[in-house]
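User: Please run a holo structure prediction.
Assistant: Happy to. Please share the sequence and the ligand.
User: Here you go; the ligand is zinc ion.
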Amino acid sequence: MKLILLGAPGAGKGTVAKMLTELDGSVQISTGDILRGAVKAGTDLGKEAKGYMDAGDLVPDALIMGIMGERLQEDDCKQGFLLDGFPRTIPQAEELKTLLADLGITLDMAVSLDVPRDVILDRLTTRRTCSNSECQAIYNTKSNPTKVEGVCDKCGSPTIQRDDETEEAISNRLETYNEKTAPLVGFYEKEGMLLSVNATSSDAVVSAIQEAIK
Ligand code: ADP
Ligand code: ZN
């Protein structure tokens, strides 16, 4: 399947994307993961992106479009892809539309994961991520804790709270989301591609997507 996953930080885009990859071999493409990988590897891209990310601000559109223009042409995308965290602004959505048309790729739909704000806040402050960049498993100290506190179940690396998961950065991310990204729901509705789902449960989201795509 070829999907865009829309939703506030903490709506569960990453979790849903990982569940969907297991269904049909589509790849998850997370611009957040790509950027964090670049920061960790100390590449030019990473150096440019880090300041924006730590503050909870968006990285400039031109950088993101450069990354995605290349990524979408890689072989593993032929099987299908789940865009997680991209597009994030109207200009990115417009450019993506042109890019996909040029590449001859048609999307199935854009899925909006709707979650109440209090649930979002609670999820973000309790989220922990595996520090191993090859693994990046996501946990939650309340709803999905690791078996041993602070240790990834899958690979044994320490689990951490991301730099952008301080309270200040979180509130900035939510504000940025409302201002820059929320308008994409209307954009994809106009394109006739939107599926809105209640995303309080990730399992229910996956079922709704499977049902809609049949
Ligand atoms: P979130 O949990 O906020 O959805 P992500 O892992 O998707 O986090 O992204 C982390 C950070 O990476 C964002 O706060 C932003 O700085 C940057 N980023 C990721 N994707 C994009 C994008 N499409 N456009 C601009 N910045 C992005
Ligand atoms: Zn791990």
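Residues 2-26+80-213 form a domain with the Rossmann fold fold (CATH 3.40.50.300).
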